[in-house]
Amino acid sequence: xxxxxxxxxxxxxxxxxxxxxxxxxxxxxxxxxxxxxxxxxxxxxxxxxxxxxxxxxxxxxxxxxxxxxxxxxxxxxxxxxxxxxxxxxxxxxxxxxxxxxxxxxxxxxxxxxxxxxxxxxxxxxxxxxxxxxxxxxxxxxxx
Length: 143
Ligand code: THU
Prior knowledge:
The chain is α+β, with helices and mostly antiparallel strands. The protein has a single domain (11-133), classed as 3-Layer(aba) Sandwich (Cytidine Deaminase, domain 2). It contains four helices and six strands; from the N terminus they run αββαββαββα. It has helices at residues 11-22, 62-74, 101-110, 130-133, and strands spanning 33-40, 45-49, 80-88, 94-95, 115-119, 125-129. Strands 1, 2, 3, 4, 5 and 6 form a six-stranded mixed beta sheet that branches. Strand 1 (33-40) and strand 2 form a beta hairpin. The longest helix has 13 residues, at 62-74. The structure holds tetrahydrodeoxyuridine (THU). Tetrahydrodeoxyuridine is lined by residues 27, 30, 32, 34, 50, 52, 59, 61-63, 99-100, 103.
């Protein structure tokens, strides 16, 4: 029988920070408050939340907000080591969530081997490699 992989270093801290980041969400339309907390390869922590807009497509996801903050801080050398994502309803109840397709593409850009953690429907946290979340992803073709 195979055992679940050991949690990535510091994942508990990222999960707690993702929960906290979700409290900053601006999500009056979906009423789904999402937070993300990541650790860069250099050991720094960054967070993000979703920011919606009356013109719906203008809104953005928590994961990519956290990535933008990390790149702003560390520049093009930023590499993703691990990220946790959390979602809550307006009453503060934790909900299962997994990164959307666009965010998966953004995650693998910065770290295919990065550990990605999110809550499952039974409220337990799962942890998977970013690569495993997006097989057959777009890779810029070499010419
Ligand atoms: N959302 C995220 O922040 N991350 C995801 O990976 C999926 C969806 C946000 C976007 C939108 O504000 C709300 O959740 C509902 O889709």
